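Record now logged for everyone:
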Amino acid sequence: MSHVRTRLLTLGLPAAGLLVLLACLPLLAIPLPGVLPGYTYEPGSLQLLALCFLTAALALSYHLLFGLAGLMSFGHALYFAAGIYGLAIVLDRTDVPLLPAAALVLVGGIALAFVVGAVSLRVAGISFAMVTLAFAQAGNVLVRRDQGDLTGGEEGLALATDGVPDALVGVVNTRHLYWLALAVLVAVHLVVLWIERSRAGHMAAAVRENEVRVRIIGGRPYLTKLVVFVLAASLATVVGMAYLLLQSGASPTTSTADFTLTLLVMVVLGGVGSRWGAVVGAVLYTLLDQRLGELAHSAAVAGLPAVLRVPLSEPMFLLGTCFVLVVLFLPGGLAGAAERLAARRGRVPGKVAA
């Protein structure tokens, strides 16, 4: 018991301290050159950090699918987009306030995930990935074709603010949106932690390792995977609704299969099977995606020879290079590298000999 208590204190105190620091950032004037566009209290910096938090929460929801249950879905963006567009449409076409509208959209996201999961999970492996991709592509087509003038097509759909509290509208309230994004990340992390430690989570991990053995001992792999699938999609829907408030609008790019592949890259970058790895991978990817664009168009890159200027002026080339380097030299992602480093530090010759 004392060992468990010590471990909880060792892990919990730094996490609590980090959470307090993050919560206080909008009240502090801390410059992070090259990382943030200004001081931490400025709207631009808070917007970027809030985007990192929501992306990390979304990566955690994908971690449930891929890291816990071993389900490689190419359609996870469908539920993220359902949260974004669902809430945008409800607020635009009705007079329902924000919270009841969010509850209604969440129910719709759960129903959508149940139907798609029930069909997709009839197959496994690459067939499952292709079926989820087909559903996601269908959703993207519906969004872009703007059936019934609901989604705005390629132009997207602006946030109707009539039912949204004033504290969550406008640049002057960016700090409130920052705190909302942080709260969503914490809530999603706690839910993912609870699921992993629950009976369903242990069963999902067993199914990932050996589905046949689970079936032989009386387990129900299909039902287990369906439960995890719906839970992960529900979390993605919640994150999508918060994303709509942060961005003040919906964009069709959030419904593409490419967006799901981006989530896969984040999870692999951080380390498959690691919660904090998914968070770190998502935050790092988002920062690189946002800040490398500025680097690519900077005067420093413009003054380089053509052989260097051409590749460095493409942000996606830089992101791809970083990803390839991590895959080649850091197997297990950032989480795996940290674990190996901690293991090396823990190998004290005197203790080993004892």
